[in-house]
Design brief:
mainly beta; about 120 residues; about 5% helix; ten-stranded parallel β-sheet
Length: about 120
């Protein structure tokens, strides 16, 4: 099991420095050194030094660069992740993932390409 995966969604949503709520729609570029918790809709790009979590009710169409990524909701796009990507049961993901490690839980849907690579 990955070390960055929170024990529960509540654990991470309460500690994330950047929070997009379930009634929020965002378009454009988000650039931050912090962790991001997304429970709403996002269309654009994310550049984060921390962990990005796409919550169960979220719908994200974006290119993502981050340290780590957890997907529970819907994600379409390209992600380049330095450490690990975890796709949770019930998530629907399509696109390209490039990461050091990728975990696809039973019951998660993924359509696309996965490339594992060591980042320095």
């Amino acid at each position: 099991m990955f070390k960055l995966k929170p024990k529960s969604i509540t654990d991470f949503s309460l500690t994330a420095n950047f929070f997009i709520g379930h009634d929020v729609n965002v378009e454009g570029l988000i650039k931050t050194e912090d962790d991001i918790y997304i429970d709403g809709n996002l269309n654009g790009e994310i550049e984060a030094e921390g962990l990005v979590e796409i919550a169960k009710n979220a719908n994200v169409r974006a290119d993502i660069r981050a340290r780590a990524l957890i997907i529970e909701g819907k994600f379409k796009g390209k992600s380049i992740v330095k450490e690990e990507v975890v796709i949770i049961r019930g998530a629907v993901t399509s696109g390209e993932i490039e990461a050091n490690e990728v975990e696809l839980e039973k019951g998660a849907i993924f359509n696309g390409q996965i490339k594992t690579a060591s980042f320095k």
